[in-house]
Amino acid sequence: MSVAFILGQKNLNYDPAGLIALYEQCPAVRDVYTSVGQWSGHDPQLLVRGSEDPAVRARTNSLGLAAAMLGIADVLRERGVRPAVVGGISLGAMVAAALAGAAPRRQVVELLAGTAEDDGPQDPSRPEGCVAAVLPLGQTYEEFYGTRPGVWFGGDFGMHTSGAFRMLLLSGYRDALEELAAGYPAEYFVFSDEHVAVHCPLRHRARDEVARRTAAMDFTDPVVPMCSSLEPRELHSAALVRAEFSRNVVEPVRTDHLSDRMRRLGVRLGVVLGPTLPRDGFEFPFPVVYVDAPEHVDQAVAAVGEHEALQSLKG
Fold it and tell me: What parts of the sequence cross the membrane (predicted)?
């Protein structure tokens, strides 16, 4: 195995310019946005361009990014680039199931659309949120945020390429997160526009709703190996993929789980689909290229070609 497709998380603040250019220049991308629009009941132009209205953006952001990831995968396939392994983080885990052949695209989109409409905090009287937090070298998770009530560990996105810190996701009640952040330099915390506490126990009602909806979905065993970001393992059966969808709502994600398992499966090059992970922000155990604009397609195809040529020479 060699090339992996890596799909990242929901991103409420990405610049849509690259995706708009892909939509305008690549028929395969337009086709996917059109299909996602039909399946979800949203205007494809809204999905590709985004909205200035925070409420609309919250309902449609995941759908737009899912369309982008699926469309970019289709463009790469047209250019002869197919993944030997796929895996995703948060939103990307669900889209990865479609790319792995473990779930129908339409059903994944309908799940995203259906759950977005009713998504909200556990207790409307107490705002929730999440924050990207810098974990300084030498500190453990527990030393950093302790056992503070109302704050949960939501994820670890790995070591920054500078080697100076790890980036964590903390979730919980907004007031508890703000109280924690007040004890550190301002640059240690970047608050998200997200209005729910993702990947933590406060999402148990959303987990139950996802479990109810996925019970009616047509999952199959993955055709392409699919790696988890919830634990360091491959999801080799329909049952495991189905369970991953609901677990993904309340359990922490870790980029290391995903990338280390990919490395063990023989991955030597990763392709990150869409504006879903910080570009060149975090270390991977293999080189990665990012595709979220038309010019990146050629770059990814060239990187795959160079990689395959190098592997042939080594062989």
Answer: none
**DSSP string over the chain:** --EEEEE----TT--THHHHHHHHH-HHHHHHHHHHHHHHTS-HHHHHH--SSHHHHHHHHHHHHHHHHHHHHHHHHHTT---SEEEESTHHHHHHHHHTTSS-HHHHHHHHHHHHHT---SSTTS-EEEEEEEEETT--HHHHHTT-TTEEEEEEEEEBTTSSEEEEEEEEEHHHHHHHHTTS-GGGEEE-S--S-TTSGGGHHHHHHHHHHHTTS-----SS-EE-SSSSSB--SHHHHHHHHHHHHHS-EEHHHHHHHHHHTT--EEEEESS-S-TT-B--SS-EEEESSHHHHHHHHHHHHHHHHHHHHH-
CB under 8 Å to 146, separation ≥6 — which residues? none
Contact 29, 293 (CB under 8 A): no
Q: Give per-residue pLDDT as tens, 185-232.
A: 888 999 998 889 999 999 999 999 999 999 999 999 999 999 999 999
89 touches 8 (CB < 8 A): yes
The pLDDT, as a whole number, for residue 76 is 98
Spans of the chain, pLDDT less than 70: 1, 117-118, 310-315
Through-space distance between the first and last CA atoms of the chain, rounded to whole angstroms: 13
